[in-house]
Amino acid sequence: MSELSVKHLLGIKYIQPKDIELIFQTADHFKEVINRPIKKVPSLRDITIANLFFENSTRTKLSFELAEKRLSADVINFSAAQSSVKKGETLIDTVNNILSMKVDMVVMRHPNPGAGVFLSKHINASIINAGDGAHEHPTQALLDSYSIRERLGEVAGKNVVIVGDILHSRVALSNIFSLQKQGANVKICGPKTLIPKHIEKLGVTVETNLRKALEWADVANMLRIQNERLDISYFPSTREYTQQYGVTKDLLNSLNKEVIIMHPGPINRGVEITSDVADSDQAIILNQVENGVAIRMAIIYLLASKIK
Amino acid sequence: MTKQKVLLSSKEVNIILHRLTSQLIEKHEDFSNTVLIGIQPRGVFLANRIKSLLEDFYKVPNVKLGLLDITFFRDDFRRGDKTLEANTTTIDFIIEDKNVIFIDDVLYTGRSISAALTAMQSFGRPKDIELLTLIDRRFSRHLPIQPNYKGRQVDVINEEKVVVKWAENGGEDTVYLISK
């Protein structure tokens, strides 16, 4: 297998396990490339990519831009804050205007779930979803699994607990799909108010006690409380959330095993994890960031090779 | 119907490998400032053979061999039907100011070597780069690239294919000419 089964990366839901394996194998090669003295390859010198960010992003945007530049693609950046979207232009009009400038691929972050799928029905360019509302964030899920594979050898059979605000998290949903497609067991942990109803139907188990969840887990993926999306009060106070669901060094030391700690960022130090946990050897948070560039290079490379 | 003709037998391949290795020693002596780079995927077998001959038969110690994958440097990305599949690159030594010897099994259009020259720039600035190839397909070049050390020069038309088989892949060392 040397080709992806899809033309766009809209979500993990739409790709096959063998696609994930191909992306990981390709990322292995790019990881070697980005550790060379000169980290750039000329593969995509005739491809133009538009990064359309209708919602704020630091890490993902930088990571995508770096991946595109390391592949020698031409890059144009767009953020909604400084654009005609504010003047009332529709999504399709905005994108079609950009595509008229002969753009081959679109990387899009949008506050509305399904924005990528909607766009893929109206335009010809290849689309990579860089996060659509509380729906999916496929590249983050892939780099998370890739980091688990790197640290533990494989993803299949591992116990992964996702802790925190599951209700508002696109990272959680993409991770559930991605981990399950690779044969891992997934548990969700957080206050009941932040766990979507009927989430068990996705094949995950739910645990509200953090200690019990960590005793079960090989890996804990810590999510932040998305204060900007909390329209009502889901828990009494941040202090109380931290007491119930914050991971501390003492808690980890009291378990009789080493649990790998992951975090998609941005970290709220002292809320979901303490500083000594974030900076410990158990945490692979910065490996995730490094792997993010390699994974995105692999995805862009594989999708670009399908553009004729 | 495809026709298959033996261009080089196992015995001939063995003699050629000894000759090429001797030529390398003549020029590079103790290999103290020389490194071998096998071009992925097919040049690696030949490169491994040369390295073991140098070390085991001619007693040249510590010959450095790296493997270079040129997939991301090729000029035919998106021009074929298939996605180009990458191989591993392993160069765990410094190439700055070294004499580099590229090793590949068949030199045909010269495009792979051109890509390898570009790829090499990512690792630094070697003193010079030479090319060793088992088979040189004369009159098929698209670029002005010639080998410094060649096993056998052959005149083959474009429709014909030169296939190098190595004992490592099962069977024995043989070079075939396949025509339709």
Summarize the structure.
The complex is a heterodimer of chains A (308) and B (180). Chain A has 308 residues and is of the alpha/beta class.
The counted number of beta strands of chain A is: 9
Topology as H/E string of chain B? Answer: EHEHEEHEEEE
Shape of chain A: globular
> Can you tell me the residue ranges of chain B where pLDDT is under 50 for at least 5 consecutive residues?
none
Main sheet of chain A? 5 strands, parallel
Give the distance, in angstroms, between the N- and C-terminal Cα atoms of chain B: 6 Å
Q: What is the share of helical residues of chain B? A: 10-25%
What is the CATH homologous superfamily assignment of the largest domain in chain A?
Aspartate/ornithine carbamoyltransferase
Query: The CATH topology of the largest domain in chain A is what?
Result: Rossmann fold
CATH class of the largest domain in chain A: Alpha Beta
Query: Which strand-content bin applies to the residues of chain B?
Result: 25-35%
Radius of gyration of chain B: 16 Å
Q: What is the N-to-C succession of helices and strands of chain A?
A: HEHEHEHEHEHEEHEHHEHH
Tally of separate helices of chain A: 11
Domain module count of chain B: 1
Strands, helices and their partners?
The complex is a heterodimer of chains A (308) and B (180).
Chain A: H1 17-33, E1 48-53, H2 59-70, E2 74-79, H3 91-99, E3 105-110, H4 115-120, E4 126-132, H5 138-152, E5 159-163, H6 170-181, E6 185-189, E7 205-207, H7 210-216, E8 219-222, H8 238-245, H9 249-253, E9 260-262, H10 275-278, H11 285-304
Parallel strand pairs in A: 1-2, 1-3, 3-4, 5-6, 5-8, 6-7, 8-9
Chain B: E1 3-8, H1 10-28, E2 34-39, H2 43-57, E3 64-68, E4 99-107, H3 111-120, E5 128-138, E6 149-155, E7 161-165, E8 174-179
Parallel strand pairs in B: 2-3, 2-4, 4-5, 5-6
Antiparallel strand pairs in B: 1-8, 7-8
